[in-house]
Structure formats: C-alpha cells, structure tokens
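Bug: token stream looks shifted between consecutive jobs. Job 1:
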Amino acid sequence: MEPTPAGRRFAVVVLTAMNLLNYVDRYVPSSVKLLFQRDLGLNDAQTSLPLTAFVVVYMLASPVFGTLADRFPRRALIAAGVALWSLATGGAALATGFWSLLAARALVGVGEAAYATIAPSLISDLYPPERRNRILTIFYVAIPVGAALGFGLGGLIGGAAGWRAAFLACGLPGLVVAAMAFAIRDPGRGAFDKGPAARAIGWPEATRLLARNRQYVIAVAGYTAVTFAAGGMADWLAAYLGRHRDMDVAEAGSLVGIVTVCGGLGGTAVGGWLADRLRDRTRQPYLATSALSMLLATVFAVLTFTVSGKASIAVCLFFAQFFLWFYNGPINAIIANSVSSNLVARAFALSILAIHLLGDAISPPIIGAISDATGSLALAVSIVPVTMLVGALVWAWGWRRLPEEPSAVSH
C-alpha cells in the first residue's frame, strides 16, 4: 500500500532519528579518547584504530547490504542494523584492552552499514527527484547534531562517570528506534522513475555503470577528500585542544560538541536551501554550492588550528563547521538523482566504500602516526585543511566542466 503523506513524514522522522544516533555512537570514542587511552595503556596510533576498525568494517559491509536490500525487506534490515550497532556501542564499555575495544567498534560498523546503505534509497523512493535535496538535507542535519551530542555527552558523562558509562549511555537508546523501523511503510522501488520499471542488475554491471557516470564520480571523489579531512578533525580535535590549548576532557568535548551542532546544523540547512535557490542561476548548482563552501571551510579550518584563546577557537571552529556541512544534502542528492532506482542502494554502498576506504578509515591513524613520529600533534593535524581544499577543487572542476545537472535517470 502506498504510504500516506503522514506515513512519509513518519518514515523521515524515524530514519533521521536513527541517523542522529548513528553519529552519536560514532564519535563517543573520540570524546573520551584520553580517558580510555590512559586506562588501557594505548599510544596515539592505537587510540585511533578502533575508529579505523569501525570504518573498515563499515565500508566492507556496505556493498553486502547493497545487495541484500534487493532481496530482503528494507525496514527489517535497517532495524537489525540499528539494534546491532547500539548493542556493540554499549558493549565497548566491557573492553579490557586494545583488542576487545577494537572488536566492539568493528561490530558497530556492521550495524551502521545496514542502515547507511539502505536508508537513503528508501527516502529516494518516498519522494520525487526535485524534493530529494530538501528531504535529504533534513535527514543529514542529524549528522552534525549527532556528532555534537557524541562529543558533548561523551565528554560530560566520561568526565563525571568514566568512559565506560559514556559508551553505555550513548549506545543503548538505539534499541528503541530500531523497533520503530517496523512501523515504516516501504513504498517499493522506482515509484518516481521515468519509463518502464528498471531491471535488477548485479554488482559487475552496476560498478561499470557508476564508473562511467561522471556526475557520480566527481561527487564521490570530492566527498572522499572531504571525508578524509572531517574524519581526522573529528577524531583528533578534542585531543588537540587538550594538549595544545590546555583544555580538560569535559571542556574540550563540550566546546567541540556545542560548536559542531550549531555550525553543522546551520550549515547543513543553509547549504541545502542555497543549492535549491541556485538551480536557475548556475550550472551544476549542487556542486557549485559544495565547492565554494568548502573553500571557505578550508580557510577557517586553518585558523582553528592556529589561533589561541578559547573564544577565538570557538568562532573559527564554528565557521569551519558551518561551511564544511553545506555539501551534505546537495552531494547526497546528486548520488540519488544521477542513477535510477535499481542503482540507488548500490550507488550509496559504493560511495560509502570509497569515502571511507580513502577517507576517514585512514586519516585518524595517519594523523596519530605522524604525531608519534614527530612528537607534534599540531603538525599532524595540518593535513586536515589540505584535504578540504582538494575536495573543494574537485567539486569546482565538476561545477565548471560537467553538463547541466540531471534529474533521476534510467538505464
């Protein structure tokens, strides 16, 4: 049965709540890094490997769930994924050493892969192409809010009751929203595709089609560079403030959390709105918005790591986060709109693989290794604005060179 307008809104609310908890659980380890580092006797490189283990498993499991989404009910797969990652986050509280912490965080990646691969394709089947940027902007607003809550709650709970309590408090609420997934009515695939129903295709053909899709390739290439930068900043910023700006765990976590939610929430909302406003004013408006905002984010990221004084850091970080998050709705709308319904889940699965394999799976340990080798975390984090700039230039090239942005296409 076709979902009612209220049913569509309910689905978006539930999926957005899941996305928020997704990022709460993802960034709790970064907020309490210094606490479990001391308790478990880890060096800098080891403290980032749990995040890397999560990302590696997440990116490898995503193509698997891209295939499963064609064979099993999507809401059941989403519910199972959310429940698994919530239990795994809480399970990290039981870690007794490096390997048990690593295993718990790796399981989080399996659960999040199920959700992150399938949810955007479900949203794409709920709304037509011209509305997807707006709806996906709402959906992705949850990322900075969730990341901020992960930092803020993790830092506050970790500082007051220890890092184990932080993992438990932030992980277990996900079981509630997992159960809510079963109330979502799936509209079926391809309701807004033009022409005959798209045929099912396998991974080899899907990969070839996506590799030839210049719109998709440029969007994901820039997304990869930006994810490298965002992952490195998310995992190391609180620790950087603790070492080089004399902040304690709760203070650094709260500052990063508050500024991230304010800047990220505003940036995601303004970026999605601006991209739609530019539709009749420039070619490739989604790439244009993403490229120009990322150039500004680069400038403010440089300032964040160079200024001193808490107020100056907070202001620069706010604007860095504000412009950093402009791309969220537009780039993911490009991914959804540039392919037909039989490719959407696989397009998101392959983008997840790419942005994490070459992005935030490697940036935190690279920064940690540079810090260990040079004795300077300040030097190590300088790669963050460099890769932001790379992402901006890739999207700018697509803005100026690609033909007009397409609506959803069929193959």
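Job 2, same session, no restart:
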Amino acid sequence: MSRELDILQGVLLDETFQVGLEEVERLCGLDRATLETLVCEGLLPPRGGTPGEWRFSGPEVRRLQRALRLRRAFELDWAATALTLDLLDEIERLRREIRLLKVCGGR
C-alpha cells in the first residue's frame, strides 16, 4: 500500500510581513482592478503613494482574506463586507477588553 505525502506550504502573515500589490494579487487571487477598488473603498489601506509603491502588512492581507471568505459565504457586496469586518473587529476588541477586565478585576 503506497501513501502519498501531502506537502503544505504557507506564508506567515505577521506584523513584520510586507508585500506589494502583485504579491497580494497572488495571495488572494484577485486582479489589480479589484484591489485598487478595495483600496479606494478603504477596505485595504496601503502604505505608499502609487500602486507601484503600495505595501501591505500581514494583518492587512489576513483581513482581506477574511473579507473574501465573508463575501463568498454570505454573497455580500464590498460595502457590506467592509461593515461586517468593522463589526467583527469591534466584537474582538470588546472581547479582549472583557478578558482584561476579568483578569484585572479578579485581583
């Protein structure tokens, strides 16, 4: 009986990770026009003045990947996707604050 070995490859998207527009296209499977629209909508804030200079951090790429999953799963338009992400971010922030209050309040 033969078994194939599946090799998994990945990219660590941490705070130090920085990529340009072409890398984001490849990592997220989007075309340049869509990415430029997302930048204009404020969903993907770049560093740099022109598309050729744009740089994105690991957390921003993760956020975009999350946005794409939400958009596909719930058939959202970009505005609804951005709002949903903002609300999810706020929920995460509030949960962190509650955990901190429980830890500090329990002393």
